[in-house]
């Protein structure tokens, strides 16, 4: 609702809906998709002890999880991208603009890499939800991959806009300051 109100007010009052607004709308749609996928997985028994599930439900959960993973990466990417484009709209500082573009590049590369790994984790892909072991093929060590990504997710939680481990948080923590410091905002209320 708030996003819709923002889009309408930006169109009517400012007469300019920016690319950051459209990207945030895509992220919002992705978050709704993520919610729907989670509800579907829950209906198949996600969160229950695996021995209490029917084989068909276990297979459905594994397929749902694959969809959830891809949607999650895209949705988080879009949210971060929206904030980066918002910074690009506000700033005229060349250093911050370059830093934002640099982070967009690495964030895009990181997201594409994660999606490719998730979709190619097993060859053939149906081996990812093969609980019987009858499908011939190979899979990466998913435990190692997802533990390494969980560290990244933890890092992203602490520094919401980071896209690579160390250099990217610096522009986001310090970058908006020169722009916001120049705003004429009353401090005495």
Percent of residues in β-strands: under 5%
Which outline best applies?
Answer: elongated
> How far apart lie the N and C ends?
29 Å
Total domain count:
1
Please provide the count of β strands: 2
Radius of gyration, taken over Cα atoms and rounded to an integer in Å: 21 Å
Oligomer: single chain
Report the major sheet.
2 strands, antiparallel
Which residues form runs of ≥5 with pLDDT under 50?
Answer: 157-168
Supply the helix-strand structural class: mainly alpha
Largest sheet, spatial ordering of strands: 1-2
InterPro entries: Rhodopsin_dom_fungi (IPR049326), SAT4-like (IPR052337)
Organism: Lophium mytilinum
Family: Belongs to the SAT4 family.
Main location: membrane
Topology at a glance:
Elements: H1 2-14, H2 19-43, H3 55-90, H4 94-119, E1 122-123, E2 138-139, H5 142-158, H6 169-174, H7 176-181
Antiparallel strand pairs: 1-2
Helix pairs in contact: 1-2, 2-3, 3-4
Overview of the structural elements:
The chain is mostly helical and 189 residues long. The protein has one domain (8-177). 68% of the residues lie in helices and 2% in strands. It is built from 7 helices and 2 strands, in the order H-H-H-H-E-E-H-H-H. The protein has helices at residues 2-14, 19-43, 55-90, 94-119, 142-158, 169-174, 176-181, and strands spanning 122-123, 138-139. It has a two-stranded antiparallel sheet with strand order 1-2. Helix 1 packs antiparallel against helix 2, helix 2 runs antiparallel to helix 3 (55-90) and helix 3 (55-90) runs antiparallel to helix 4. The longest helix has 36 residues, at 55-90. Keywords: Membrane, Transmembrane, Transmembrane helix. It comes from Lophium mytilinum. Residues 5-150 form the Rhodopsin domain.
